[in-house]
Amino acid sequence: MYSLYFCPGTCSMAAHILLEECGADYETVAVALGKGEQRGEAFRKINPHGKVPALIVDDKIITQNVAILPYITSQFPDAKMAPGNAADYAHCLETTAWLTSAVHPTFSLVLHPERPAGGADIGDVAEKAIEETARATYWAAMEQIDSRLANREWMMGDQYTFLDPYTLVFYGWGKRINMPMEDLKNFSAFKDRMIARPAVRTVLEKEESPLLKAA
Ligand SMILES: N[C@@H](CCC(=O)N[C@@H](CS)C(=O)NCC(=O)O)C(=O)O
Question: How far apart are CA 158 and CA 113, in angstroms?
Answer without folding.
Answer: 38
